[in-house]
Amino acid sequence: MVSGQEVTKPHFAFLPSPGLGHLIPLLEFAKHLVIHHNVHVSFLVINTEASAVQHQLLDPSTLPSDLRVINLPPADVSSRVNDSMKVITRLTYICQESFKHLRATLIELNLPKALIIDIFATDAFFICKELGIPVYSFFTSPTKLLALSFYLPKLDKEVECEYVDLPHPIQVPGCKPMRTDDLLDQLLNRKDEEYRYYLQHVSRLTMAAGIFVNTWDDLELKSNWLNAIKNDPFYKILPAPPVYPVGPLIKREEVVTESDEFILSWLDKQVPNSVLLVALGSGGTLTAEQLTELAIGLEMSKQKFILVVRKPNDLIAHGTFFNVGKDRDDPVSYLPEGFMKRTSGQGLVVPSWAPQVKILGHEATGGFLSHCGWNSSLESLVHGVPMIVWPLYAEQRMNATLLTEEVAIGVELVAVSAVAGGRKVVKREEIARVVRFVMEGEEGKVMRSKARELKQSAAKALKSGGSSYDLVSSIVESWK
Ligand code: UDP
């Protein structure tokens, strides 16, 4: 471990909860601070249940020298955690066990000037309060969810029934009404532990010295969420901590393996804007029936594609959240018979994990069918790629609505109820129709041109003189 005494630059620490959707943007923010703002960062990592991809992303040889990865001592969670547990409950338990050593680690690091956590690492507030270290939160979802999260403790007191049974949308202060259909999974059953833990974490948001949000001023102009948090009396009375739009911070470099090289050289041979990337984040998995419909739908669309594929999971939609990268099985065993052969000239099938940012940044990529995790959504916007939205879990339905209705760079797929009354399914014909609509249709071109405008404004926000860059500079100066 690095002793704080060795460090001469201002020293900050980061602490994400498990899961790549949180680790990736916090790591990018840490890199941004080190590269552009001359600080030293200790990036504290929970390795308990870490995925193979996490180890790859944190390889010290790929990180700037002023960014040190510090592994928290491994915690034994075997008596508290099991595979059937829901995500936030499991994350909360892992954090509780892992943070038993956090106090000692921060002291050994000679007390960094501030700690930056994500929304589920909130037990750190109490440890840092005792040590006198200010804690900032990095919110890895859109400001839309932040506004709802600030409001949730009040909503919880005022509403007795399930939110989904309310006869009207939810009126988040200062914002446009939010459809209950779009609520995140954790808010669908208030009797479930998942809800209780989500409520607990967001109730602590007011303890933060400030909240960084992965967005930028121009994107926020398309909606009223950030403006509401900054100006509506509800948030002033709370009081909500200052909220800083510092993004879009996305993965910039990716480790490219030999099989990735193959994907990129295949893309080099395709015409511009002709390939659809299909990828469902770090955790997304489909049922066997849905995977078959997706594969055949892609084939029927006759469009070029890269399909990142995982073994189907009929029970949960986030089947690889804790172990992505370990599941590189042979897709022939679960894709429709003959599919790989029939589509060999049309598309590529990539098991488990692909270099998503490199693919989105390639000129041959013209569309992205995504589960709408916020990192994936930002990566698409930063590269000017229109989206087909396929929300699966967490807050993704909310993100999908934002992308289709407010930002207008995405189109949704219509699912129908399964014949036997089970989970809804998007049928092959619908997949083929929407894929062609985005890749070939006039509306696809309009969405692409809107996405390109956002690409330029995102690049501007992150350059010296841009809104996000300058905001971060002023915060770092105030810290120094
Ligand atoms: N990702 C990737 N390759 C894949 C799938 C995902 O590099 O095959 C990355 C993606 O670029 C993004 C992250 O994993 O940075 C997923 O984060 P997101 O917030 O989109 O979704 P989550 O995994 O949290 O559901």
Structural class: alpha/beta
* CATH architecture classification of the largest domain: 3-Layer(aba) Sandwich
CATH homolog superfamily of the largest domain: Glycogen Phosphorylase B
Largest sheet: 7 strands, parallel
List the domain count as a whole number.
2
CATH topology of the largest domain: Rossmann fold
- How many alpha or pi helices? 19
Strand arrangement, major sheet: 3-2-1-4-5-6-7
Q: What are the main properties of this structure?
A:
single chain; 480 residues; alpha/beta; Rossmann fold; 2 domains; 7-stranded parallel beta sheet; 6-stranded parallel beta sheet; 19 helices; 12% strand; binds uridine-5'-diphosphate
What's the structural blueprint in terms of helices and strands?
Blueprint: E1 11-15, H1 20-37, E2 40-45, H2 52-57, E3 67-71, H3 87-98, H4 102-108, E4 115-117, H5 124-131, E5 135-139, H6 143-158, H7 193-203, E6 210-213, H8 217-220, H9 225-231, H10 233-237, E7 243-245, H11 258-268, E8 275-279, H12 288-301, E9 304-309, H13 339-342, E10 347-351, H14 356-360, E11 365-370, H15 374-382, E12 387-389, H16 396-406, E13 410-412, H17 428-440, H18 442-462, H19 467-479
Parallel strand pairs: 1-2, 1-4, 2-3, 4-5, 5-6, 6-7, 8-9, 8-11, 9-10, 11-12, 12-13
The chain binds uridine-5'-diphosphate.
In summary, what is this structure?
By secondary structure, this protein is of the alpha/beta class.
Walk me through this protein's architecture.
With 480 residues, the protein is an alpha/beta fold. It folds into 2 domains: 6-249 and 463-479, 3-Layer(aba) Sandwich (Rossmann fold), CATH 3.40.50; 258-458, Glycogen Phosphorylase B (Rossmann fold), CATH 3.40.50. The chain has 19 helices and 13 strands. It has helices at 20-37, 52-57, 87-98, 102-108, 124-131, 143-158, 193-203, 217-220, 225-231, 233-237, 258-268, 288-301, 339-342, 356-360, 374-382, 396-406, 428-440, 442-462, 467-479; strands at 11-15, 40-45, 67-71, 115-117, 135-139, 210-213, 243-245, 275-279, 304-309, 347-351, 365-370, 387-389, 410-412. The strands form 2 sheets. A 7-stranded parallel β-sheet has the order 3-2-1-4-5-6-7, with helices on both faces. A 6-stranded parallel β-sheet has the order 10-9-8-11-12-13, sandwiched between helices. Helix 15 (374-382) links the parallel strand 11 and strand 12. Helix 6 (143-158) packs across helix 9 (225-231). The longest helix is centred in the last third of the chain and has 21 residues, at 442-462. 48% of the residues are buried.
